[in-house]
Specification:
Helix content: 40-55%
Radius of gyration: 20 Å
Shape: globular
Number of domains: 2
CATH topology of the largest domain: Rossmann fold
Strand content: 5-15%
Largest sheet: 4 strands, parallel
Strand order of the largest sheet: 2-1-3-4
CATH architecture of the largest domain: 3-Layer(aba) Sandwich
Length: 337
Amino acid sequence: MAGYDAFLLVSFGGPERAEEVMPFLERVTAGRGIPKDRLAAVAEHYYQAGGASPLNARCRELLAALDNQLAEIGIPTYWGNRNWYPMLEDTVAQMRDDGVTQALAFVTSAYGGYSSCRQYLDDIARAQVRAGVGAPEIHKLRLFYNHPGWVAAWADSLGEAIASARGQTQGGKPERVLFSAHSIPLPMARTSPYADQVKQTAELVAASAGLRNWELVWQSRSGNPALPWLGPDINETMQRSGPSSFVVAPIGFVCENMEVVHDLDVEAARTARKRGADFVRAASVSNHPVFVDMVCELVRERISGAPPRSVGPSGPWGDFCPGGHCPAPSHAPGEAS
């Protein structure tokens, strides 16, 4: 049995009050030369949503759900973010002070890639250096894009969304199921498993939900318009469609964040209405009981050495990512995009 004595939830972070929005955006985009007027425009998305990202609230819900199960095996929980409070470096310092020696980190992303995996590993390493002598050893839990708990939780959420769409639809409009994830620049996609893993999740969820017709689309592209990104874009896909009942499952995200709340619930929903289409978005799975059980299973798997579970053809991801995978790009997308 491995000697892990703590669990660390690691996420992107987001503002929780209007006065935090601009400092948060400035932190996320530091060094990228983003014009002030662009930041102000993005800030409006937060103000329209009440001045807060939902991400921190979803993380609190997830952590509360995990506390009881992990307490049963004597594992205390901690939480630290990349870009907003509670900051990861502060949390790792607290873990040091509490006497934690070896922790397991769960990152709120199912997929490989620079922003979704490699950067979090770098964040953890940086926080350990800043904590100094006595900083705990921290191991990131494996990617879970093809874990049966991830797939089942999304299939359940999608099923509820489809049922809701059928209850709302007038005139027998056909349902179009769209699986959505954050787009990334094509040069980044070529150096990471991100796009392939998102596609595998979509295929597995669709099969579990009994779907034959569905599409994988991408959202939230930002930056230089001359740089090619993964497509097709969700809004362009919807604009080419006739009147339908769109059901969107944002499988690229564990928790709701501003890119779900604004880019889907506001912008994509507006695109659907302009086409005379209904729009229903499946809820994220961050506090779904099956997903919570999956996170606990990943912890127990690493502690006990139990065989890892997966579905689909590629098998489970390894406990440790290959060295040097998913190198840093010139621009990494994030919630501020």
